[in-house]
Amino acid sequence: MADDVWLVVGLGNPGPEFETTRHNAGWLVADILADRMGGKFKAHKAHAQVVEGRLVGQRVVLAKPRSYMNLSGGPIVGLRDFFKVERDRIVILHDELDIPFGTLRLKIGGGDNGHNGLKNITRALGGPDYHRVRVGIGRPPGSLAPADFVLRQFSAAERKELGVHLERAADSVETLLCDGLDRAQNLYNS
Q1: Is 23 an active-site residue?
Q2: What are the start-end ranges of the E strands in the chain?
Q3: How far apart are CA 33 and CA 51, in angstroms?
């Protein structure tokens, strides 16, 4: 396995109807990172869009699986095998209901917190010990089901702050790659 490459994966759902929903927060962060890398996403045989390049001096494969989020594990395993990436050098960018909007949490390993995309990835990778950048989207209001809430657009008030929130998530990925998890947690776990 190559020990010099990172696989950074933004989770989301394909299709214009999902493009700017809460569940696509990982894709939105991946788009920012692609801009910072100066690259454009291209189709990969692992059923994903990828950008290969450098980010903060690190060799990075940035990816957006083209499957629905709940089936992300297959494309991620395909990319892991193709690029020969160790599990502890995989970073998953995803939305997190149990964290308030505007908040980030970085960690390695742990449970899936009911996130079906993470469940599928953990099963496919054979374990949970990969990095996660958890982008807070908050809990649904009232009796709205979480499954419906995550597929909704951000509110008008959230959209005013969304750009800053996503840029901060991208910054946290750069810190993780460059300076390690402890430093990134100290700076961004709020």
Answers
A1: yes
A2: 5-10, 42-44, 48-55, 58-65, 90-96, 104-108, 131-136
A3: 9
**Other Cβ atoms closer than 10 A to 156:** 7
- Confidence grade of residue 114 (pLDDT, cut at 50, 70, 90): confident
Q: How many domains does the chain have?
A: 1
Q: What is the pLDDT of residues 16-59, one digit of tens each?
A: 999 999 999 999 999 999 999 999 999 999 999 999 999 999 99
- Domain of residue 71 covers 5-188
Per-residue pLDDT, 113: 83
Q: How many CA atoms lie within 13 A of 88 on its CB side?
A: 3
Determine if the pTM surpasses 0.85: yes
Task: For the chain, give the mean pLDDT.
Answer: 95
Catalytic residue, candidates 23, 94, 115, 131: 23
Q: In this structure, what token pair is assigned to residue 43? A: 């189709």
